[in-house]
Every structure is written in C-alpha cells, then in structure tokens.
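seq:
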Amino acid sequence: MTPAQAELQIDRPRVADGAALWRMARDSQVLDLNSSYSYLLWCRDFAATSAVARDGRGEPVGFITGYIRPDRPDTLLVWQVAVDNALRGRGLASAMLDSLTARTVAEHGLTAVETTISPGNTASERLFTSFAQRHRAPLEREVLFATESFPDGPHDPEVLYRIGPLSAPATAGAADAPGSPASH
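struct:
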C-alpha cells in the first residue's frame, strides 16, 4: 500500500456521496455521464456492491459502481470506476477493485467479475487485466454491444471482460495504470 493509499478509507457509498460521484464521473471526461439522480439512487440501492474511497476528511476521491447480475448471481458487474484527477496513477482504482471484490465475495459468494470497456481505454484495460492476473483468474473478452447497437449517435463498441473463477490475489499492493477512470 502506498502512503497515498494509507491515508484513504474504502467503504460503501452513502446517498450523501451521490453528488460527488456524479462530479467525478463528469470530470473524468471518459465515463458516460448518467443523471445526477442515478448516482443518488446508485448510492442508495447498490451500496452493497459499490465502493467509495475517502480522503482523510471523509470526502469521496474515487468510486466503483457495481451490481450483482440477476441472471448470474455469482457475478459482480462493475459499471463505472473513477478516481479524482489528483490521485490517478497511484493504485487507487486497483485498491478499490480488490476491496470491493473481497467484500462482495465474502458477503455474496461471488466467483466472477464482469465489466465492459470501449476499445482504446488503456487505463481500464490495464486495470482489469492486472486484476485478473492478481487473482489468478482467466480473462475472456467478447464484444457485448456493437457500435450500431447504440441509438444515440456514434459510440464505440463495449467489450465484455469476464474474469473468473476468482482466486486469492497473488500479490498485494499492485498498482494500476496511470489515469484510471475506468469503464464506460
């Protein structure tokens, strides 16, 4: 764990965090920005399968939103990952993903993680590839939604990354790639 990570706490989001999560998603300039209302609902309804990193003052500086797939109750789908601009490249996204996964495995018996990544999102590709390596888990990729599937204009395809079955991490404290606002 780096000194920057030691000052941070990773836990469940609260409704009061919704506005900060929305701002981080907006400021990432990489993530698809959902309505502010959706981030408030996410913090209320999916807190058990999401994570927020807090600085020493308790302010959110990173988040992961996720949910358990209804048709695959052993799978955590990671929806969005964002890290405050000032903290990117310090391993925070990896630390949040490992923490969230450990919690959801313990609480829900999950054995797999999925996410979608647009081609060219190198930070996300590195984050999830290194996660699979740390957890000694196979990684499968396939196009989930092709470009023509999106009705609202040009959108890169979304490639599904399926990681599992999960094992305990091989090493602790592995750093993620610089600039880690991840998926979507």
